């Protein structure tokens, strides 16, 4: 078992039942190891168990990374029967175990066996120069568990590039392998293996990351190395094999007898404990209960972490007593990871590492799983300084094909040590992609497709990703992505079909090569991209002409233009809009705009303007209108200004006529503002009725004429008339008329 800073949960004691308080309390108890502390959940069937007055759950530290997990039920009844399951989970994995509570036959009988329990969490191993990758782990279970592998929560099916194996070992132990052939970068991710039987379930996880330049524990890691030879001692009926080693991060431990790996369980117990002598020191122990002569053989302890691997050997022999390894010997150990450098010429690379051993070890170099034989290009040397050895591997005139995983093995009669290093050899670094101009946005296929195109100069085909806003675009029925090449320039294009206004926005293109990355953005305005109709702006060919006319005459303004129809026309007078109506008549026909006034007055004088517009431009023309008053009307207007306003008065005078002497006419002249005159005529005949007749005529006469008549007639006292005379009123006229004759 590997115990380090972080440990996935695993049960070291399966759940067991006991009764307390004369059977009134039932206690479920199990023990597990985990770091960090796991979250615990209990279930009956598939229903979570809730804490109540009858039910309590607790997790108690049991030293180190061990915990006692307890469920207590008070006042047990038949309804509490069922299948109970406990689940422990932390960020490294999850494990579960089940137990049945059955009250039948007056008691309970628990199923015998072992819930699945991982005794070795998954580790990775490469073969075939890195083309094959293996995930390996080990567990104990009884009955045999069903195994399921997952990648990113998706079940992996055996077949094709994937091969899944579970190999039974001794003492209910199983060795699990997930094999991936022809490994590609897309195989990186989170892997999980789940083991399940009728007594419980357990799982373990591992992450595959191809970025070998990042060390999980920083730059101060240490490959495992054994600080002293293994020892064997016996305590009563237990045989203990102990190894001291140093490593960072904590190593995974495997024990072998001859060539067979020893699985934990039954008579074998495997532990790894931190040593008080230092933070990176560990003690690896193999316990064998009731050892027998059949246990004799050569035992090997293997310690491995991300930085390397080391082995220590010890022989167990029961003939004539225990024969430990030779005293004074040191198993080969590597205290640091191998280093790589280039000589001054830049054509050769050197892998160098340091090893401690006694006696002198034999050295073997590997590339992948193949032994590197000495040649004109491959030179291996070893420099000795007491028990310290400097190991070098020179590769002359290296090429890109020399990249890969290298391993050096040092072995003597007291043990074996290994160290690993990965060499990534690349040719000259290519330059980053360079954008060739700005992105081009255009319409294609008669305006039905938007095309965004960007040129980029790079030595290899770039990886291309298009974004709309911050969302990556996927190839579908509307978005089509292509790239063409011409003379070292790549031209990625994005075609947008069935576009709408919603496609307006910012598009981003990200181009990546081994040399770097380039980004281009393009703004798309769907409305602006739509084709505009072609046409000519408005141009005036005949301007408005100024007009001088007399009062009452008609006026017509005319302007002529050229330009693409339709044309809108706007007329104004003194900058105020003119509308078509009773006063103004506005028309436009084939480039001729007309404004008609059927009769003008002096108030119509002013500045007239016309603006003509189409979607390509506009033009303006202006002219003045002057309206002159007629002379007669002007005289009348002037007269109005100077004549006094008379109050109503009456002037009586005698009018001599050719009629009878006794007839009299009374004329009353009444001036008004309109210079009108009222003439009243009274006639009276002695023989006739005393009632006279009064006639009032409204007549416009010049002031001079009225005044003259008044002066020539002598006034006479009017006679009283008994009755009101009838009146006939006639409205005033604009122009003077001849006086009407008064009937006799």
From TrEMBL:
Pfam families, per database record: I-set (PF07679)
Top-rank lineage group of the source organism: Eukaryota
Keyword Ubl conjugation attributed: no
Region (Disordered): 322-343, 655-744
InterPro entries to which the protein is assigned, alphabetical: Cell_Adh-Cytoskel_Orgn, Ig-like_dom, Ig-like_dom_sf, Ig-like_fold, Ig_I-set, Ig_sub, Ig_sub2
Stretches assigned to the Ig-like domain: 9-102, 116-209, 224-317, 332-424, 533-628
Claim: Signal is one of the keywords in the record: yes
Coiled coil: none
GO biological process terms on file: homophilic cell adhesion via plasma membrane adhesion molecules
Compositionally skewed regions (Polar residues) per UniProt: 666-684
Bias (Basic and acidic residues): 655-665, 685-694, 702-744
Protein name (Swiss-Prot/TrEMBL): Ig-like domain-containing protein
Organism, as annotated: Arion vulgaris
